[in-house]
Design a protein that fits this description.
The complex is a heterodimer of chains A (336) and B (170).
Chain A lengths: L4 E2 L3 E3 L5 E9 L1 H4 L9 E2 L10 H20 L8 E5 L6 H10 L3 E3 L6 H14 L5 E8 L1 H8 L14 E3 L2 E8 L6 E6 L14 H20 L8 E4 L3 H14 L8 E3 H4 L11 E3 L1 H17 L5 E9 L3 H5 L6 E9 L1
Parallel strand pairs in A: 3-4, 5-6, 5-7, 8-13, 11-12, 11-14
Antiparallel strand pairs in A: 1-2, 2-10, 3-9, 7-9, 10-15, 14-15
Chain B lengths: L5 H13 L1 H20 L5 H28 L4 H21 L3 H8 L1 H4 L2 H15 L4 H8 L4 H23 L1
């Protein structure tokens, strides 16, 4: 019956969704990072002319969506669904941006895995014949995330080496059922994995097992070996999480070798920019993949990539109540 | 229908713990957490101790200097301590508002958190964060979100210390 489902958790798109338009926007800190030239807009400040950080984040998301729509060359009214998510309570950035965009809206929450989750889901809607155009977007903001998950922004905190810095930015894609451009060909939906890590300042370690689980299931379902990919990209494991991920994968007989990179390590210069173990946030995997990696594909440097966007599914309530941190990893394959 | 006995019910709730799958999960968790502990970079404790000692000491020396000024103007030490604290609190708040205090804390650690300037920072930072949620339910309610526990347990330990003093005097 489910003719497009392969193995336990993977979907093979028979009519792969085309990436028709991309929009990325980042804050000043990301603008000082090594990938700055690949983003569409680099803001001079985090406020973006708004009074509150929450409004700034919403504006980021709206702008990224607008850019993606413009680049796709299609009319906004032709888009059938807007799939979006962010990190805040009740995913307010996504739903409030949907109020502005006035496109039928599906709100999703996958923490920092949202970009891959939304893209996979959008692909299924397109391949299922339920739509011709889907807009996928997600955002995060350093200040809103600090307020949501951690402490007041100006508080006297000394960050740990394992903590991660939330990316300020937003990424958006217009997926189309036909046309030219990179295609999303496979998607593996992750299971929620929890190996008992309780430290909210070490989310990379909490998410690494989930990323590994999704990789192993993807490999088992598709029969691909990891070296068919020019790049295996994890979302925001950071340097410590990446180390744990490659080690877990190697122990399970799946050596990702030098093919592996992590968006959370790529977006900042981890030596000179004080970001702990690297970056995190919905926008991290989104802007690195949609901005940098897709441009690298355009330049002909990459042909086929696997993105495993990772999310830590905690809330301030759960870690205050002493619960461990569940992680998830959603994978998509993008090829030319 | 037969109601399961107390003993049987206990057995039933215990069941999942003893299954092989649960044991396997527990073992995997232990192995992984050990790996994480091994790979986690160790905090440079010695550096932290030294920096906190020097920076915290510097803040205290500044406080002493301010106290000296007030004493020099003719106040006795008890009367001079109140305006000194007010000056240090004001300094903490102004540096917080300028976005400098958190940068200082990133370097100084406990050296920035322990003196009264750090306490002022916790209140000012919370007030700044929640001002958009209104004067009452925002700033008014959330201002003490970090400082509140310090006050509560400060008073509690004060009572405790006074009680010990009272008992030892008897």
């Amino acid at each position: 019956m489910a003719s497009k489902k392969i193995g336990k958790a993977t979907v093979k798109f028979t009519n792969p969704p085309i990436i028709a338009g991309i929009g990325t926007i980042v804050g000043p800190m990301e603008g000082r990072g090594p990938l700055a030239r690949d983003f569409d807009v680099v803001l001079p400040d985090m406020a973006f002319g708004e009074k509150t950080a929450e409004r700034s984040e919403r504006k980021l998301l709206e702008q990224a969506a607008q850019i993606a729509i413009e680049r796709s060359g299609i009319d906004k009214d032709m888009i059938d669904y807007y799939i979006a998510g962010d990190l805040l309570n009740q995913i307010i950035s996504a739903s409030f941006s949907a109020r502005q965009l006035a496109i039928p809206f599906i709100g999703v929450y996958g923490a920092c895995s949202t970009c891959a989750m939304g893209t996979a889901f959008g692909g299924m809607i397109l391949d299922g014949g339920f739509a011709d155009y889907v807009l996928v977007a997600c955002s995060s903001h350093y200040q809103t995330a600090e307020r949501q998950f951690r402490y007041p922004i100006e508080l006297n905190i000394q960050h740990k080496a394992t903590s991660q810095y939330t990316v300020t930015g937003a990424g958006a894609l217009v997926l189309a059922s036909s046309g030219n451009g990179p295609r999303v060909t496979w998607a593996t939906t992750g299971r929620v994995i929890d190996l008992g890590v309780k430290d909210p300042y070490n989310l990379g370690a909490a998410m690494a097992p989930a990323a590994c689980d999704t990789l192993l299931r993807h490999v088992a379902d598709t029969g691909f070996s990891p070296d068919v990919y020019d790049l295996i990209l994890t979302g925001d494991l950071g340097s410590l999480g990446s180390e744990l991920f490659t080690e877990l994968a190697k122990d399970a007989g799946c050596d990702v070798g030098s093919n592996h990179k992590d968006c959370g390590v790529m977006i900042f210069d981890t030596k000179t920019q004080r970001v702990g173990s690297g970056a995190s946030g919905c926008a991290c995997a989104a802007v690195v993949t949609f901005g940098h990696v897709l441009k690298e594909m355009e330049r002909g440097n990459l042909k086929k990539i696997l993105l495993i966007a990772t999310g830590a599914l905690l809330s301030p309530l759960t870690f205050q109540q002493g619960e461990s941190i569940p992680g998830v990893g959603h994978a998509i394959v993008i090829e030319l | 229908m037969q109601v399961p006995s107390e003993k049987a019910r206990k057995q039933m709730t215990k069941m999942p713990e003893t299954t092989q799958a649960a044991q396997e999960t527990k073992r995997r968790q232990e192995v992984y957490q050990q790996l994480v502990a091994e790979r986690k970079p160790k905090p440079p404790y010695l550096r932290h101790f030294l920096v906190a000692f020097v920076t915290g000491g510097a803040v205290c020396a500044l406080g002493q200097f301010v106290l000296g000024i007030f004493i020099g103007r003719g106040l006795d030490i008890n009367a001079a301590s109140a305006p000194t604290l007010a000056i240090m609190i004001l300094l903490g708040i102004v540096l917080t508002a300028l976005g400098i205090y958190d940068e200082f804390a990133e370097f100084a650690g406990a050296g920035a958190a322990v003196p009264i300037t750090g306490f002022a920072n916790t209140i000012a930072a919370s007030a700044m964060d929640f001002k958009h949620e209104g004067w009452v339910l925002g700033m008014g309610a959330k201002m003490f979100i970090i400082a509140g526990p310090v006050i509560v347990y400060g008073i509690l330990s004060g009572v405790f210390a006074a009680f010990i003093k009272y008992i030892t005097r008897l």
